[in-house]
Structure formats: C-alpha cells, structure tokens
Amino acid sequence: WLTNSVVKENAIDDEGDRGNGGGVFNGGVMLIRDATVGANSAGTFGGGIFNTGNLVLEGATVARNEVLAQMQSCAPERGPCNGGGGIWNADGGKVRAARSVVARNTMRDLGTENGFPVSKGPDCAGVVASEGFNALGAAAGCELQPSYRLHGLPTRDLTGIDPLLGVLIDNGDA
C-alpha cells in the first residue's frame, strides 16, 4: 500500500528511450490512497504509473508526469508505441479510481503511421473503472467506465478539465 505519501521526480531511462513506470510499476495488487504521484518520467509507457496488475486509486493525485519517447521497434498497427503520461493500464490490468485527479501529464505525441495512432493518452491510456468523483484532464486514450460497485448510480466524474494544480512543493513535516 502507498498511503499519505509522495512519489516524485523519479525517472526510468533504459538505454535512452525505453522504460515503463517512472513513479510506480505495478504488476501485482496495489492501493494508492491519499498520495501523489508527480513529476516522474518514463521512456515509453506510464510516466507516473505503469500497471499490469490490480491498482486502486483513492484520493490520489497523478500529475505532471511525462513519457519521453517511443519503443525502438514500433508497429502501431499492433498498438500504441508510447503513451500514458500519467497512467498506462496495460491489457489485462485493472485500475479502479475514486475521488482522484489525473491531470497535467504529458507525452511526446508522435502522430500516426500507416493510418494507426502511434501515441495514446497524455493523462491516461487504457480502461479505468470509476467509483466516482474523479477529475481527468485529457480524456483521449482513456476509457473511463462506471464501476460495477456504483450499482448504476452516476459517477459524477469531470473530464476534459484543468484542475488548476500548482507545482509540487515540500511543505515540511507538519
């Protein structure tokens, strides 16, 4: 579990342009509660978080992370070559989010190749099950779906917004 914590200013740079999960690489079961993942970078996927397992975000902020480049051998017809500046949720991974902010993340957008998108999702790439009250900056590339736990109730999520987040600063131990 990652609670009441900040994961910031980490970088994954494997041979100049590869590497996944600049702040967090989850391949198991993980809870991020009342924590910030910010100002991290990765070469290919998931500047803030790379997920192939089960991830739960509760009151989390994922902001100002970035993806810098793309895979060396890219075949966009089989899937994106980079993306998920904030969160990359790989096929088979599960992300649930409640009362969380995913915004102001970036990626190097590489356009299209042979009619297929090369890049996917500056803030989020993949499916995220919403348990409500989330804020998502750039919804492109992210499939925000209501969680079954809502039993048909509305998510009340906000998408395509700027949550006006300030820079990450150290406020001391108090």
Give the topology, please.
Blueprint: E1 2-3, E2 6-8, E3 11-12, E4 24-26, E5 29-33, E6 36-38, E7 41-42, E8 49-51, E9 54-58, E10 61-63, E11 66-67, E12 82-83, E13 87-89, E14 94-98, E15 101-103, E16 106-107, E17 112-113, E18 116-117, E19 119-120, E20 124-130, E21 135-136, E22 142-146, E23 158-159
Parallel strand pairs: 1-5, 2-6, 3-7, 4-8, 5-9, 6-10, 7-11, 8-13, 9-14, 10-15, 11-16, 12-19, 13-20, 14-20, 15-21, 20-22, 21-23
Antiparallel strand pairs: 17-18
Protein architecture, described:
The structure is a single chain. This protein is mostly beta strands and 174 residues long. The protein has strands at residues 2-3, 6-8, 11-12, 24-26, 29-33, 36-38, 41-42, 49-51, 54-58, 61-63, 66-67, 82-83, 87-89, 94-98, 101-103, 106-107, 112-113, 116-117, 119-120, 124-130, 135-136, 142-146, 158-159. The strands form 5 sheets. Strands 1, 4, 5, 8, 9, 13, 14, 20 and 22 form a 9-stranded parallel β-sheet that branches. It has a 6-stranded parallel β-sheet with strand order 2-6-10-15-21-23, with no helix packed on it. A 4-stranded parallel β-sheet has the order 3-7-11-16, with no helix packed on it. Strand 17 and strand 18 form a beta hairpin. The two termini are 22 Å apart.
Distance between the termini: 22 Å
Specify Rg, calculated over alpha carbons: 15 Å
Major sheet summary line: 9 strands, parallel
Oligomeric state, counting identical vs distinct chains: single chain
Helix content: under 10%
**Low-confidence blocks of residues:** none
Mean pLDDT: 85
Overall morphology: globular
Order of helices and strands: EEEEEEEEEEEEEEEEEEEEEEE
State which percent range the strand residues make up. 35-45%
Number of strands: 23
- Derived from helix and strand composition plus strand pairing, the structural class reads mainly beta
Number of helices: 0
